[in-house]
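To: structure desk
From: M.T.
Subject: fold request, one chain
Message: Could you run this one when you get a chance? Sequence is below, nothing fancy, just the single chain.
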Amino acid sequence: RARSLRQETGEVVMRRKDKMMERREDLDRVLSTAKYVTVALCDQGRPYLVTLSCGYDAGHSCLYFHCAPKGRKIEALERDASVYGQALVDLGYQQAFCDHLFETVQFEGTVTFVADHAAKVHALEVMIRQLEDDPQPVIAEQTKERSVAKVTIGRIDIRSLSGKRSAKVLVQL
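Reply: Done. Structure tokens follow.
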């Protein structure tokens, strides 16, 4: 029944309601803390999985990533821009409890490639701030005109989000 309900409504059905993250602030926090996302693409009818360094722009509900200007990922996205992905914050394996603590956010979206210079600079700043401990020197270098002109920036516009959390050991042995 859960599968058919999800297919009919697009609604996420989670068996463990106690682990569901529902507050948008929690989902945004995970996306803005994660250093990478794993994204599933469809490449000529076959699944293709990629892991991307990213930056989350909560105000625009999108993720930015940079990549090479050519390759399988680009070709697959040109054919089908729909993606499904996951951001993971690993809270660690709990020794002696056979449990792993985590927060994940799953998302569906559509990829477009950013061509406008100012939009590319914005995307780079978002990514660098999320990934670097000391972002200012990296921003100064990577947003120079020659660097921006060479970089390929993808933007995942997020259509839906869901989240799951296991933040404490629930079953004590």
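Reply (cont.): The longest helix spans residues 117-131. Let me know if you need anything else for the meeting.
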